Amino acid sequence: MQQPEETFDSFITDLKLKTQSCDFGELKDSMIGDQIVYGIYDKSTRERLLRDTKLTLEEAERLCHTSELALQHAKTFNDVSATVVTDSFKVAVVKRMMGWAVPQKTGKYVLHSCKWYGGRHQPHQCPAFGKMCLKCNGKNYFAKQCFSKAKSKTVRMVDETELIETFFVGLVSCEDVYSNHHQKQDGKQDSVSDDMWTQGRFKAFGGPRQDGL
């Protein structure tokens, strides 16, 4: 009987050595062929040998060698595939632990994070491609992913600072006019000062308001 880890060459060589001490005569090849069918370890190979009604020793050896080689190739392929899958799983676990974005599979496709679209999409199918940003008129990205956000915030901060400075300058001017208004004793001068104070007040607050204040 062939052992699980025994090669077919070792098995057939052992059979031929044993038959040399037996006087089988012309039945020698037939007896070796029968022992191959009976003692071969792989069941699928045995079934193939049994299906051949005109099996010769030479044909039996050829079939057994072919089957053994095919099994070795299949085992090697399975081992490599298992290693690749295991390594890919390990890499994905490490990426998740480090906070990296791991592509998600949907059916046969892999979804990737896109900085232009702001979400995930299939390869070469970015919804933002060819579109125009509504904020800066840039191309190939949406407004929510606009690259001019930081610049816009800086400009707005500068505008607000200038507005505050203008307000305080106007306010100081109003206080000066108001002070002069109370220091004047002449009635005509008081009227002029009232007009100046009113105009300064309007300028400080950006013009007259609807509520009359």
List the strand order in the largest sheet.
1-2-3
Shape: rod-shaped
Question: What does the average pLDDT come to?
Answer: 70
Helix percent band? 55-70%
- Beta-strand portion reads under 5%
- Report Rg: 47 Å
Which secondary-structure class do the elements indicate?
mainly alpha
Query: How large is the count of helical segments?
Result: 6
Describe the protein's architecture and organization.
The structure is a single chain. The protein is mainly α and 213 residues long. Among the domains are: 8-95, no CATH class; 150-204. The protein is built from six helices and three strands, in the order ααααβββαα. The chain has helices spanning 8-20, 28-39, 43-51, 57-97, 149-183, 187-204; strands at residues 104-106, 109-113, 120-121. Strands 1-2-3 form a three-stranded antiparallel sheet, with no helix packed on it. The longest helix has 41 residues, at 57-97. It is rod-shaped and about 100 Å long. It starts with 7 loop residues before the first helix and ends in a 9-residue tail after the last helix.
Give the SSE layout.
Elements: H1 8-20, H2 28-39, H3 43-51, H4 57-97, E1 104-106, E2 109-113, E3 120-121, H5 149-183, H6 187-204
Antiparallel strand pairs: 1-2, 2-3
Helix pairs in contact: 1-2, 5-6
Features:
213 residues; mainly alpha; 5% strand; rod-shaped; disordered C terminus
